[in-house]
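re: ur question from earlier - yeah i can do the single chain one, its not a big deal. heres the input i used so u can compare w yours
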Amino acid sequence: MKFNLPIEAKDIMELLPHRYPILLVDRVIDFTEETGDKKRVGRKITAIKNVSVNELFFNGHFPGNPIMPGVLIVEAMAQVGGLSCQYGQDEKNGSFLIAKVDGAKFKKPVVPGDQLIITSEIINDRGSIIMIHTEAKVNDKLVAEANIWAHVTNGKKS
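and the output i got, formated as tokens:
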């Protein structure tokens, strides 16, 4: 499926099954098609997650010192990875399920008011298993990165 850039939330919801409060991508701002004959390898997408003080997780993480949980940063990066599989396809793929997270690193806390710029690039494609390198930045400074392995189904029920 293709949309004109930027891709807004209503169109993101056509590409991803996530909904509030777990939909963690607000806008897609850039997309680069893969080159060559290596399936999806090289496909790159950049998206935004606006971090608001009104996020439910800030109520308990942590009172008086709100920090976005690392697991949710990884989830946001995985959702952008899922978008890199869906966007540009003639038809919607099936599911995109995290199989493994390698080398997750958190460099700086993410706090209310930050704007996460998340980049995802498919670096290995084995058909139903893909590996995506993801980075999250705030103000051009790396705050988190990980390699995410995912299982991508064709949408048919077994």
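The helical segments are 9-15, 70-86. not sure if urs matches, ping me
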